[in-house]
Amino acid sequence: MLAAARSLRRLSTSSSSSVRALRRVLLHHPPSPPSLPPPLPPLRTLTRAFLPHLAATHGLSAASFSTSAPSRLGERVDVRGAPAIPEEEEGEETAGALVRHDTDAYAAVELALDSVVKVFTVSSSPNYFLPWQNKAQRESMGSGFVIPGRRIVTNAHVVADHTFVLVRKHGSPTKYRAEVQAVGHECDLALLTVESEEFWDGVNSLELGDIPFLQEAVAVVGYPQGGDNISVTKGVVSRVEPTQYAHGATQLMAIQIDAAINPGNSGGPAIMGDKVAGVAFQNLSGAENIGYIIPVPVIKRFISGVEESGRYSGFCTLGVSCQATENIQLRECFGMRPEMTGVLVSRINPLSDAYKILKKDDILLEFDGVPIANDGTVPFRNRERITFDHLVSMKKPEETAVLKVLRDGKEQELRVTLRPLQPLVPVHQFDKLPSYYIFAGFVFIPFTQPYLHEFGEDWYNASPRRLCERALRELPKKAGEQLVILSQVLMDDINVGYERLAELQVKKVNGVEVENLKHLCSLVEGCTEENLRFDLDDERVIVLKYQNAKLATSRVLKRHRIPSAISSDLVEDEPTNGEVETSCTS
Questions:
Q1: What is the tally of structural domains in the chain?
Q2: What do you get for the CA distance between the two ends of the chain, in Å?
Q3: Residue-wise pLDDT tens digits, 58-84
Q4: Residue 509 sits in the same domain as residue 454
Q5: Where in the numbering of this chain does the Protease Do-like PDZ domain appear (predicted)?
């Protein structure tokens, strides 16, 4: 799984991402300087959308131009890639059909030109090694498009950790201030709004279409690197299946196309006919013209969640790990009859509703009445199959799903409530400051994957092995649980000899098991004993004289120019006699 994930390109030079080996399509450098326009390609390679215009200008018929292109923008193409109009047919009817199709395509591109915007983002990501400060500010660019309701759709990674966002229309020299209304990092989508009435003059909105069939033509519109003006590239749909999203490190449906998707294309629409077929967001490393777009069902699911709750609501998960039952001996062992198909439940997340309903070694036969094959797939369109996780992800939070399971040789129908689930080790922490607590020079933080990413692109091999294994495999046992680690030791007389105990998990404080960072903070601040004891991983122990350690904390903060010993999310401010008292909350 990890090797496959590394092959996706995240075309970002400096941004933090949940899966650093993945490369998303985002331009993180200033626009290239103006250059002379490239020479026009031969006439036969121009998009057919411009033929009617050329014919009218030069007094020629559209039929006099070459029609050798295998598929044209706006035309329907069957699964074999055959054009809807046979090319050997000639005459007025054929010419009229070509003009009609090309005119529709030209109109679609014209509509897109009045809908697609360039997004300019200034962002600053947290430093997880030094959680009290941010990294250097950087500028990046992406694309977006307008949808009904005066909203702009773009990618989440285009505006991740943003401090300032501007948008510019095609053909306009003016940039307008934009606000981020909602961000869904799992699905890599974001909604922007612009208050300026001037911006909306002459702007058209694009309608969302449907999932295109294989070999259907799409045109990707955006602002990729290599120039400052809008760009249109054309391709066909190659594959539709769940794919690893580089930005959010989640598995959701994606559409693979062979149109060129380059840095800066992120957030731009893929047009099919006169509607949006998806949003460009990433491509594949080491391959030519293999790009991915976010399909309409995922876009609609994101937008509907924002409209209903006013914020991003997340994508549901069943909270179950399953094993394929392709081996006949395995199926016979669990009492599956020859006509039965399904998957074996191997692990269940304790925070999920399924934990109270399903059991290990259950055979999951159907999801909402859809039979699950022995390889975990379900039917999808015409002779296509897709993993049943897609059915789960399209459910809204708190919706109920009907599961048919085989337990101890008997079939049962069970109902499970679905909701988004947070992992024990967060995969990403965009748009928020990291938590930390400093005491006597010991820096305590909740363990997250962004912390591992600070070890570099090869974080899987460069980071502490035990922490890495926990990040990828461990499940939470109760809500609010965090793995708290000692990330580093800021040297002082009080902690000499403990400097080699960094990057270990904190298990207990004075004999009390640590639930999360807030809990650790409250245990330390509320200590009433002479000694303060930390029990760490590998049976390591730290013992401090409590009062001396409290005095040392202010000394360490001053020496390292750290503004506060506690991150803002752990601070409770209570005015008392005109003063502000700072304490940890549990």
A1: 3
A2: 37
A3: 333 333 333 233 333 333 333 333 333
A4: yes
A5: 425-569
